[in-house]
User: What shape does this take?
Amino acid sequence: MNRHDEFIQTFTILGRDFSRAGSVSTEIKEILQEIGVPSSIIRRVAIASYEAEMNVVMYAQKGELTLTLNPETIKIEVEDEGQGIEDIELAMQEGYSTATEEMREMGFGAGMGLPNIKKNAHIFIITSSPGVGTYLKMIFYLDEERAA
Amino acid sequence: MTLQEIIKGLNLEVITGGDNLNLEVKDGYTSDLLSDVMANAQPACLWITLQTHVNIVAVAKLKDLAGIIIVNGRQPDKETRQKAQEENLPLLLSKETAFQVSGRLYQLLGKGK
Ligand SMILES: Nc1ncnc2c1ncn2[C@@H]1O[C@H](COP(=O)(O)OP(=O)(O)O)[C@@H](O)[C@H]1O
Ligand SMILES: [Mg+2]
Assistant: This one.
């Protein structure tokens, strides 16, 4: 059920596509800038969407990111088909990473992605089925006073 | 201090973004971990790193950084140059180490005074 005042756009993210990695987050940032979202919120969204996008690139075959905007909130959902996460609590720990040596050489695999998403989204939900895929939902309130 | 002044002061080679050098640089951030830069670099700061692959351009754009200094005389990948060119992002090279470049930028910006 779509609200009449809602804007929804879906983006595809390809696993292992390191050369285009970050392009979906960049597009989202441009959309938010165009509609005049406060820069403090754009910064939060940029960090969280980039980390979520990179996790699909690094750990999944493909994923879909859906951006939903309404006058109160920015919602970003990322659903991927991939290896999934066995132990979410462990994955959420700062510093935990299963990134390959090759990824680490490129500066990925700090194990800060999921913790950074949690820090920056006002609401963050993650669920996963090992061997099937992972689903993330992040919500950002446009009115930061209300979010606090 | 403008990027142009810093380029002179640190003797940097300009690879791309040459028409974006009047930017005011506020600070620097030295790191080779992309998530660390995403989390902690401030807008309008110069990023000092030895990473050369194309993903550094997206990080710099997402964080509104003033530019990237690649250290140790490393050369950016071809893809990185192309992408930085497209985005008009200042991509700068130094033969010095991250430690040396960071120390000199710190002084130039009058930090720690
Ligand atoms: N979408 C995903 N699919 C499968 N595994 C994931 C996904 N996102 C995160 N993970 C797992 O959680 C770990 C921690 O993720 P994160 O905090 O982003 O750190 P990093 O990406 O640096 O490893 C990853 O190393 C990986 O094992
Ligand atoms: Mg990650």
In short: The radius of gyration of chain A is 15 Å. The first helix of chain A runs from residue 23 to 34.
